[in-house]
Amino acid sequence: MNAEALRALEVECAQRHAEFCKAGLALDLTRGKPAADQLDLASHLDGALQGDYRSEDGTDTRNYGGLRGIVEARRLGAALLGAPLAQVMAGGNSSLTLMYLFVETAHLFGLGDQGPWRDDAAGAPKVLCPVPGYDRHFAICEQLGIEMVNVPMLATGPDMDAVEAAVRDDPSIRAIWCVPKYSNPTGCVYDEATVARFAGLPKLAAPGFRILWDNAYAVHDLEPDPPHLAELFSLAKQAGTEDGVVMFGSTSKVTFAGAGVAFMAASTPVLGAFEQRLGALMIGPDKVNQLRHAKLFPDMEALTSHMRRHAAIIQPKFEAVQEALEAGLAGTGFATWTRPRGGYFVSVDTLPGLAREVIRLAADAGVKLTPAGATFPYGRDPEDRNIRLAPTFPPLADVRRAMEVFINCVRLASARASLQENS
Fold first, then answer.
1. Mean pLDDT taken over the chain
2. Which of 34, 101, 106, 337 could form a disulfide with 348 if both were Cys (CB 3.0 to 4.6 A apart)?
3. What angle do CA 267, 231, 154 make, to 5 degrees?
4. CA-CA distance, 63 to 377, in Å (whole number)?
5. pLDDT confidence of residue 141
6. In angstroms, what CA-CA distances link 143 with 108, 185, 241, 246, 365?
7. How far apart are CA 248 and CA 271, in angstroms?
8. Pairing relation of β-strands 88-90 and 262-265?
9. Cα(218)–Cα(310) distance, rounded to whole angstroms?
10. Distances (CA, A) of 115 to 4, 62, 206, 209
11. pLDDT tens-digit profile of 232-274?
């Protein structure tokens, strides 16, 4: 745009922004939570057991014990994660808890014949973080004092040239975080070549290196013919790197977000070492809830059918986001964005240096967005441009209204920045 057009755009957007600010809006696109009507889909969890609390092997799920969970729940986890049943643990409601405890164990106590990360002769431990990425992964490392190293996220997954070079050159790198399907926040799915390179990664790294494979959105497809994610566990077994893969997942966005079942999969020695640590913290998970979920999803067909109903609720919201982005920003050069085929987020990149300003303007107009920098370690986006949109929780009308405000804020901030740059 020339200066005259930018000035006209700035005036127009500033006027609209003032109108939005006066409207008293209170809209929220911050966190990827299921909407109430999604939670309602699992309401028949209540009463699913009909007073019969025994699992298929006769275990009374109301009692103590069973640290790895009941076999029915572990079978569900194996199907979700693409891992052997014998190497799957079913836990409580939070995969984040399992991830934290696993990293804490590796860092402070060690796993099996691998000593604690903090005592490694190679130096203070580091973890690779594909960016933009998941803020709660970063929070785990930050709380434990583990240094994080950014690696770029591509449309096919992490930049594997950068990942392989990093682990080859620096033995203090102990792990890498991954969300391999519908990655948070970009929505990308790691392609087969990327997954194959991950299977070989532990051979390039120092002993005890772990791939932290958080497959949180394994079944969260928006389309009837979803993209395929290659099975890392089987590829790692073929490559002889099975000890380097640790998988996580849950039903938290499948049934009740606060009362789902979490899963972890790892090689037999790694899972056994982790189980020893877990045994000091708890006697067993909520097996009653595990049994409820196993009754609700006796097989993958039942789970897939359930997730189609989720997609029917949230797909229109994702379409509303894409329609607004296309109508308001396509061809302007002010932003780029992802078009995910599943998951819970859309990632938008503004012009460099404008994410914080866009988020500030949106807040003034009554629209809450995820804080700038949240998708980078330590909350620092080096280019200040990435914004994560989470459209699942609000009603569709609120998503559309919030996107009107968001688009106007991007246009306003971009016009002002461009005018200043050209002045």
1. 96
2. 337
3. 115
4. 41
5. 98
6. 13, 22, 28, 20, 33
7. 12
8. antiparallel
9. 14
10. 65, 36, 13, 12
11. 999 999 999 999 999 999 999 999 999 999 999 999 999 999 9
Q: Decide: 370 and 30 in contact? Cβ < 8 Å.
A: yes
Q: How far is CA 299 from CA 16, 27, 78, 373, 401, in A?
A: 51, 38, 11, 40, 39
CA distances from 68 to 89, 95, 283, 388 (A): 5, 14, 10, 35
For residue 167, which of 136, 120, 208 has the smallest C-alpha distance?
208
CA proximity to 214, closest of 178, 186, 190: 178
Q: Which residues are within 8 A (CB) of 345 and not within 5 positions of it... i.e. 6 or more apart?
A: 32, 184, 185, 186, 187, 388, 389, 390
**Binning pLDDT at 50, 70 and 90, where does residue 114 land?**
confident
Whole-angstrom distance, CA of residue 57 vs CA of residue 51: 17
Overall size of the chain counted in residues: 423
List Cβ neighbours of 322 (8 Å cut-off, separation of 6 or more): 339, 346
User: Do 241 and 77 meet the contact criterion of CB atoms below 8 Å apart?
Assistant: no
Residues 6+ apart with CB under 8 A from 13: 408, 411, 412, 415
With CA atoms as reference, report the closest residue to 104 among 17, 212, 258, 190: 212
Which residues, other chains included, contact 244 with Cβ-Cβ below 8 Å and sequence gap of 6+? 201, 202, 205, 209, 210, 211, 236
Beta partners for 129?
A: 150
Predicted TM-score (pTM) of this structure:
0.96
- Hey, what domains does the chain have and what are their CATH numbers? 3-30+304-422 (3.90.1150.10), 53-297 (3.40.640.10)
- For residue 157, what are the β-bridge partners? 154
CB half-sphere exposure, 92, CA atoms < 13 A: 13
d(CA 220, CA 249): 12
End-to-end CA distance of the chain: 14
Q: Is 220 helix (H, G, I), strand (E, B) or coil?
A: coil
